[in-house]
């Protein structure tokens, strides 16, 4: 498996889970602003990670990973908000929230590693 494929797969799985929650929220009359923001922030990390993997330079790679991290952090906030507003079942987003938080840590560590490398 090429380097980064495992993270890409996890980001794609996150996007699918978010899209499923988005679909379910429509039935609960969740405000469009919240559901749309969740959908955007939860699906964009995979696409941005794909861009990072084909970055033109180390600086470009770090920048694009930074975008991935920002979107993951935003997704995490929307998931937490949905739980507090009770637009999703209390237990439904827990694994999703945990996965999103773990992906944040992995991407942040990757940014730090690449930023401190010589070359």
Distance between the termini: 25 Å
- Structural category is mainly alpha
Q: What CATH architecture label applies?
A: Up-down Bundle
The overall strand count is: 0
CATH topology: de novo design (two linked rop proteins)
Cα shape: elongated
CATH superfamily: 23S rRNA-intervening sequence
Classify the beta-strand content into a percent band: under 5%
Over all CA atoms, what is the radius of gyration? 15 Å
Helix content bin: over 70%
Q: What is the number of independent domains?
A: 1
Number of helices: 4
For the record, the CATH class is Mainly Alpha
Low-confidence stretches: none
Short description:
The protein is mainly alpha-helical and 119 residues long. The protein has helices spanning 5-27, 32-53, 58-85, 94-116. It has a single domain, classed as 23S rRNA-intervening sequence (de novo design (two linked rop proteins), Up-down Bundle).
Task: Walk me through the structure.
- By secondary structure, the chain is mostly helical.
- The chain has a single domain, classed as de novo design (two linked rop proteins).
- It contains four helices and no strands.
- Helix 1 packs antiparallel against helix 2, helix 1 runs antiparallel to helix 4 and helix 3 packs antiparallel against helix 4.
- The longest helix is centred in the middle third of the chain and has 28 residues.
């Amino acid at each position: 498996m090429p380097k980064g494929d495992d993270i890409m797969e996890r980001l794609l799985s996150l996007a699918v889970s978010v899209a499923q929650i988005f679909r379910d929220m429509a039935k609960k009359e969740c405000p469009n602003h919240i559901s749309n923001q969740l959908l955007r922030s939860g699906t964009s990390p995979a696409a941005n990670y794909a861009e990072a993997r084909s970055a033109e330079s180390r600086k470009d790679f770090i920048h694009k990973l930074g975008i991935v991290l920002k979107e993951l952090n935003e997704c995490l906030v929307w998931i937490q908000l949905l739980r507090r507003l009770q637009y999703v079942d209390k237990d439904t987003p827990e694994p999703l929230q945990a996965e999103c938080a773990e992906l944040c840590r992995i991407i942040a560590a990757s940014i730090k590693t690449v930023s401190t490398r010589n070359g």
